[in-house]
């Protein structure tokens, strides 16, 4: 992700990582997305620079979103997939608008699980946080280490 980064916390341990889920209104600006990402990083002591970013597949064509996360892997997920993810803060309005009760939290959790693989520990470390036309959540994953040769 581009832009100034607040003093980040430590990076992820080997075999672990962060995934940022982003929900956005049509026409969201790159500045609004960056501002919220920077706020979340600063408030939670996270380094989001290498994080995978996940969103609703219909938002992949949003210039503001794409521009804000340049340099990061951007994943688009179908609403049907996101609707199947259990989240702590579902929203009926989002479900009516885009077909899933959660975009940011569900995208972060689903993509973290997908990135980590089977048997990984996935945790929502930042619940959905709203900004100007954008919502962000952050999940972490940690792969289990195998013992033995």
From TrEMBL:
InterPro entries: CbiG_hydrolase (IPR052553), CobE/GbiG_C (IPR002750), CobE/GbiG_C_sf (IPR036518). Residues 18-139 form the CobE/GbiG C-terminal domain. GO terms for biological process: cobalamin biosynthetic process. One of its GO terms (molecular function) is hydrolase activity. It comes from the Bacteria. Keywords: Hydrolase. This is Cobalt-precorrin 5A hydrolase.
